[in-house]
Design goal:
9 strands
Length: 279
């Protein structure tokens, strides 16, 4: 456990690579891409943003992944009050095609076609699940960070997924009306569910957000540090195949910054969720 704690501590900090930032618009898709300064056959991911957010609010997370050698592209679409989860899922697929199919930077950066994944937060987490279902043989991993309910529901495509997955949830998520991590985990048999200790699901995005107008919480640094460490370790294990981080993809290992799941916990009734919402 001491070794894993050291890894988590290291992964919560910036990695060894200098980072370059690019624009996906050059390939016809609004969005950004972050890469290490150089490297061939790198792992790559497409990242989906939360409701009323955008790619800019995850610049720290995307830079963090790139500093650890992971190319990260994020479409900056579906940012309105009534976004389409299916459209964002399609844009994630397009972003991944760009990341994997174009020689990036000055030509000394490339992504390996067998080291691809999709990641999303909140609304974008459900979009990542839909994107993964549309690419059943193309991905090495998919990650849903604090997923939320969408229409259509992500549980439907999740039931068909064979790709290894990670679902990050918060301690209070079972009492949250629009959180669906537990239902998603039940449908997605190849995914590992982890509870991020003392996390605030809406706090992953950086800076101020339009959603603050609706009374939703803002940036939460503890959540950001924890998610960066857990996500980076998982992607290095599953996409890069780095055995140093194999425990991050082992469902039987309880990682630092996470809380063990209680298998005896009773499902939270809808009435309790409504009471919690009104508090």
């Amino acid at each position: 456990m001491a070794r894993i704690r050291k890894l988590v501590t290291a992964l919560s900090r910036r990695g060894p690579h200098r980072v370059l930032r690019g624009d996906l618009a050059f390939a016809g898709l609004p969005g950004v891409v972050y890469t290490p300064e150089s490297g061939l056959n790198l792992p790559g991911i497409a990242f989906g943003h939360d409701w009323l957010a955008g790619a800019a609010r995850y610049s720290g997370l995307l830079e963090h992944l790139a500093s650890w050698g992971i190319v990260a592209g994020a479409p900056d679409t579906e940012r309105g009050l009534a976004p389409s989860v299916l459209n964002l899922a399609s844009d994630l697929g397009t972003a991944l095609d760009i990341v994997a199919g174009v020689r990036l930077g000055p030509g000394n950066i490339s992504v390996h076609p067998a080291k691809l994944g999709v990641v999303g937060h909140g609304f974008g987490a459900s979009a990542a699940v839909f994107a993964a279902a549309g690419m059943p043989t193309a991905l090495a991993a998919a990650v849903a960070v604090f997923p939320t309910v969408t229409t259509p529901p992500a549980e439907q495509p999740a039931a068909s997924l064979k790709v290894p997955g990670l679902i990050l949830t918060a301690p209070d998520d079972p009492k949250t009306l629009n959180a669906n991590a537990l239902a998603l985990s039940s449908a997605w048999s190849s995914a590992t569910l982890r509870i991020v200790s003392k996390a605030e699901p809406r706090g992953l995005g950086e800076g101020r957000r339009l959603a603050s107008v609706f009374g939703l919480p803002g940036s939460h640094r503890r959540t950001q540090r924890s998610v960066r460490a857990l996500l980076t370790g998982y992607l290095l294990a599953t996409l890069a195949g780095d055995k140093t981080y194999r425990e991050f993809a082992d469902p039987d290992v309880v990682l630092p910054k996470t809380t063990p799941i209680d298998p005896e916990a009773e499902p939270v009734a809808l009435e309790e969720k409504i009471v919690a919402l009104l508090k």
